[in-house]
Protein 1
Amino acid sequence: MIMKQYDKFIEVKILEALERRIRNYHPKKEIIIRDLKKKKSEVAGEKEIEYPLGFLNPDKFLILHNLRLQDENGNFQIDTLILTERYYIILEVKNWQGTVLFDENGQVIRKRSIEEEEGFPNPISQVKTQTFRLQKWLRMHNFPELKIESFVVISFPSTIIKPVQPTIQIPEQVIHNNQLYFKIMELEKNKYPHQTTMNMLMDISQQLIELHTPPIINLFHKYKLNRSDLNFGVRCPECRSLPMIRLKQKWHCTPCGIFSRSAHRSALEDYRLLIGNTITNKQAREFLLVESPDVIRRILLKEKLIQRGNTKSSIYMWES
C-alpha cells in the first residue's frame, strides 16, 4: 500500500515556471533548462519503480516515497522506504543512462559516448549511510528497530551495468528495475522474526509522514535572481507570445489575434509557484500588466482566491 506519494513533481513544476518566465537571453537560462531536464529525468527514473512495486501485496508492504527526515546531522532523504512486519527496505533509485562502470573502489563511471563520461560516488556507501542514519533515527523516536535491507535500483532497463575489469564484482545490491520485485520476494524467504504488526506499521508510517520535512524550494536564492529577471504578463495560450492585452473582460493577443477569458490562470499559477501563495492587488497588477485595481480584484475573486481585509492593502490567498 502506498502511504506517501512522490512529492518531487512540485520541483519540476516550479522549474518549468521559471524556465517559462526567465528572460530569453538571461545568463542563467541555459543552466535552468539543464537543471529542469535533469530533474525531469530524476522524477521519471523514480516513477519507473512503480511498476515492479505494484506487484507487492498491499496488505503486507507499506511504501513511502521521497521521505526526508531530520537528525542531529541535518536532513537525509530516502527515495523509497518499504515497511514490512519483519524488515524494512531502503531503495536508492538511480536514473543513470548509457553504460555504467564500477571500479575496484566502488566508484561509478557513466559513459554515454567515447568523449562523454561522468563520475559518481559509491552508491553502496550512500545506502549504508542512509541505513545507519535511519537506524539511529528510529531508535531516537522509539520506533521498532528491524533489519534494514537496501538496494540501488537502476531505473532504466536500457542502462548497461558492468565492471571496469572482469575481476571486479558488481555489488549484489545494485540491480535493474526489473529485478526489484524478485529481489524482494527473495527477502520474504528469509527467517526474519516478526517484531511488529500491520497496525503498528500503519502508525509508524503516519508518524514518518508527519515528521517528513519537505525541502524549501527557493529558486531565486539558488540562481541569485530577483523579480526583475522575469517576464511579466499573460502568455497567449495559442502562440505563446507575451503579453496579452486586457480588452472588455477578455485577453487579446496582438500577434495571433485570438481572445481568451481564462489566459490569466496560467500566469497566476506561475506567480504562485515562483513567488508565493499570497498576492496583493498591486502585485497582481504588476505581474499581469493590468492598470485597473477593480479588474484585478474581480479576476482574483473569480479565481476563488481568499481575500483577507477590505482595504487597498488586502491580501489574496490561494487555498492550499
Protein 2
Amino acid sequence: MQFQWYPGHMAKAKKAMQEDIKLIDVIIELVDARIPYSSKNPDIDTLANGKARILIMNKSDLADNSITDKWIKYYEDKGYFVVKIDSKNGKGIKAVNGVIQKACSKKIERDRRRGILNRPVRAMIAGIPNVGKSTFINSFAGKACTKTGNKPGVTKGKQWIRLSKNVELLDTPGILWPKFEDQNAGLKLAFTGAIKDELYSFYELAILLIKFLSENYPSVIGEFYQIEDFGVSESEILELIAIRRGCIKSGAKPDLDKAGRYLIDDFRASRLGKITLEKPNCD
C-alpha cells in the first residue's frame, strides 16, 4: 500500500504559516502520543526558524504510558518543552499555560527591560490533520472557539484566538508534508486516521495492523474479540473477527473489509487498550 495525501489547501496553509511566523513567539506543535515521531511534521522544524518550541503529546489517554514517558524524555533531550495531555477530557491542559510562559521567559524578560509590559505571548498552533488541535484549543480556552471533528480537514483557514491577557493563539489547518519518504510513517498515519479513509483499503490496513499487534501486543486481539486459536495467518484472524462481529455477506461469507473497518475503529477508540505504534530510537 502507498500512502500519500497532500491536497492543495495544505500547500496554501504552509505558505501562510511561512508568512505568519515572523509574528510568532512560540510554536506549539501537537503530535499523536500513539505515533509521536510519525505524526511530527518535518516541515514544521523548517518553519520554526529559531522560535521557542513546545511539543504537546495529545491523545495520551490512548497511548501506552510507559512508552509515552520515553518519548517525553527523547524530545526534552532535543530541547523541546513537552506536555502530555488528553484534550478531549481536559487532562494536562492546566499545565500548558505555565509551559508557554517558561518557553517564552527570555522574550518576556527582554520586553520587561524595554519597558514593554503585558504584551501577550503569540503562539502558533501547528500539527497534522486529526491530531486534535481544535479540541485542544477549545479545552485550553474553556469555550468553543473552533470547529472540531474526528476526521482530517475540519480546520480550513487560520484564525487568531485571544485566550487571556497573556496568550494569543494562531490556529492553523492541519498539514502533512508533500512526500512520505518512509511509507511506514504513512501507514501509522493511516492507522490513526490522519489520512482520509477513502484513500486505502480497510482490509489491507487491518491485515497490517493485525501483524503489528501480533508482534507487539500479542494478547489484545484474543482478549477483546475472544479468539483463542492464534496459530493462524493475519487474514484468518480477520475472518475470525468478522465472525465475532457478525460481519457476514451473501453466501454466508465473512465480510473482511467490514471487519477490517471495525478493527481499525476499535484501535482508534482505544477499545483494544492503550497502544503505541512506535518507540524512540534511543530505546
Protein 3
Amino acid sequence: MDFIEAIMLPFKWLVSVIMVGFHDGLATLGMQAASGWTWTLSIVGLVLVIRAALIPVFLKQVNAQRRMGRLQPDLKKLQDKYAGKTDQLSRQAMAQEQMELYKKHGTNPFSACLPLLIQMPFFLALFQVLSGISTAAAQGQGIGTMSHEQVVQFDQSSIFDAPLSATVLHGTPAGGNVVAVWTLSIVMILAMTAAQFFTQKLIMARTPSEEVPTGPVLMQQKMILYILPVVFGAGGIIFPIGVLIYWTISNLWTLAQQFVVTRRAAPGNGPVPSPR
C-alpha cells in the first residue's frame, strides 16, 4: 500500500460507511436495494452529513471574510507605502507587514478556500470508491464497508438510463445508454459550475464598495470566480455520474448557504451568527 492510499483509506471507509448506512436505511423504508435512486439518495445523504458537519467551518469562513474586508484600508496604505519599490528587501518587508496585518485582524487571504480544502479528501475518496466499482464487481470484491453484493448493485444501477459508475471520458458499462450519460453529465456539470460561479458572485457582492479587495485578496476572489468553475467543469468529464451528483448537490448547498448569509447580512437583518 503506497503512502497516498494509506492516507485515503480512512476517508474511503468513512464515505462507504455513510453511503451504506443511508442505503440500508432507505431499503428498510421500502425502497429497492438495487435501485439507482436508492444509491443516488445515499450519495445525497453523504453530502448532507459532510456539509452539516462543515457549518461551523463555514461560519468561521464568513467572519474571516468580514475581517478581511475591514483590513482593506490598512492593506491599501501598505501597498501605497511600497509602491514602486521592487528590491528584495522591500518585497520581504512588505510581505512581513502583510502577515502582521492578517494576524492582527485574525484572518488570511485564503480563508475562502477552507471548506473546499476540507471537503477534498472526502471528494477524492468518493471518486476512488465509485471509480473502482466495476473492477471490484468483476473481481468479486467489496469496497470499504460495501459488500460485493452492494458493489454489484451499484455497478448495475442507473438513473434516467445513465449508470452511476459511468463517465463521459471512460465510457459506460455494458447496457448503459451513452446519450443518457452525456446528457446527464453535461446538465450536472453546468449546474455545479453555475452554482460555484454565482456563490462567488454573492460573496463579492457582499463586500462594500469602500472595502473592495485589492492585491492577493482580489486575485483570490477572481480565481475562485472564473478559474474554479472551469477546472471543475473540465474535470467533470472524468467524474462518474455518482461523483457528479455529489459535487452538484454540494455546490447547490453552498449557493443556498451563501444566499442565506447574504440576506442575513443585509441592513436591518442583524449579524451572521458566530460559530460555537
